[in-house]
Amino acid sequence: MSDASRPGARSRLFVLDTNVLLHDPSALFRFKEHDIYLPMMVLEELDAAKKGVSEVARNARQVSRFLDELIGASDRAAIEAGLPLPARDIAGAPPAGRLRLQTTPLPAAVMAELPGRSPDNSILNTALVLQGQQPDIEVTLVSKDINLRIKARVIGIHAEDYYNDMVLDDINLLYTGARALPPNFWATAGQDLTAVQTEGTAHYTVSASHFDHFYPNEFLFGPGPDDLILVARRIVGSRVVLDPVKDYGLTEHAVWGLTARNREQSFALNLVMDPEIDFVTLLGAAGTGKTLLALAAGLAQCLDGKRYREVIVTRETVPLGEDIGFLPGTEEEKMNPWMGALMDNLEVLSETQEGGEWGRAATADLLQNRVKIRSMNFMRGRTFFNRYLIIDEAQNLTAKQMRTLVTRAGSGTKIVCCGNLAQIDTPYLSETTSGLTYAVDRFKQWSHSGHITLLRGERSRLADYAVQHL
User: Fold this and answer.
1) How far is CA 75 from the centre of its chain?
2) How much is the average pLDDT of 245-254?
3) Which of 6, 123, 241, 403 is the most buried (most CB within 10 A)?
4) What is the pLDDT of residues 361-394, one digit of tens each?
5) In terms of Cα–Cα distance, which of 404, 110, 126, 414 is closest to 279?
6) Cα dist. 144→21, 115, 430 in Å?
7) Which DSSP letter does residue 263 get?
8) pLDDT reported for residue 189
9) Class of 12-160 per CATH?
10) What is the spatial distance between Cα 305 and Cα 299, in angstroms, rounded to a whole number?
11) What fold does the segment set 175-244 form as a domain?
12) How many percent of the chain have pLDDT more than 70?
């Protein structure tokens, strides 16, 4: 829940659906001072889901451990009275609400419009009985299942989605990595601007009071095409240090033969080519060049600059349609069908003009030897040193999966996450709960990370038109 405590609202009792706990085991502790109620059917479904090594099974086992810890040596009377829930986010805080478990069978109260004895209808029955028994308390059913929430509202039960895992209330509030300065910015801030020359490079400083907020490695640009473009690096005292931005649209600044086609692509190349930035997130619609830019920068720094030992590419294997089943071969061979986008980009980057067909074939072999494809399923426990790691289709990751992957980075490793929040294929994720959104929001304050949202498609005029009109 985003905020269970509403000013002037009566006391509330939250009935949790199983999918809420399977999605977030810590949901037991997320309802502040309000009580939560677990129907017996929820415990049955948790028991059925605990087998296996999937993320859902792990979450089911974690919920069982939490419940076992809360119950402890409590007798039936204590369980019927409600178990105190600790306020886990605040050390030493008094207990928040209480956990109430169903201890006796409840009379059937579901309306005739809900036929059968499905688990969902059993949970609805529980919520409806509680609502009749305690009219002075607002009973709310919390579920990730849209259809269950619809049925609850039809029979008169207040139902809500689980919002606590939402990073933002509105995806439009997500940090974009670039800021358009007002037309009169340099006229008002120009007198306060100071320039320092360091090793042939100009650095500027301006008072932080000219900005309503500050994020490290945020790009600043004016309304005019010839206006100065800078990147805000850090705050020293009360002044923001601004550095000039390298224009990767120029041929002399090409990265592995690739030049930026628009301003945001140039910003992205500034981030992925900067050795001081360890973590980069690239958002954008289809055809904006996320994977191509990340791969070109990785090859340039791996083969030309010798900064990294190799490029590693991984992605979440969520099918668009029906799953094609188990695949034969090694780990890399099993991942090949999921890496069509990578292969397409490697073809573009291996189109050398030297040596004709032999030169192109040799370049393609070299690139495939230095670009390793790894499955995300085997990442736990690994540590990558001096690697350039690309996480493609990162919008399909949960916040927990994103944390697991990013913490694989050893010394000298750079991670680039690419994704499109409009193409989430995982059932229980949305734009505001995706692990990619979580990473963008949590890393925006760190001086060794950067983010940019790519705005314009550059794949082809056909793809660009399709994105806008289909």
Assistant:
1) 42
2) 92
3) 123
4) 656 666 667 788 787 777 777 899 999 999 988 9
5) 414
6) 10, 21, 11
7) H
8) 79
9) alpha beta
10) 9
11) Thrombin, subunit H (2.40.10)
12) 83
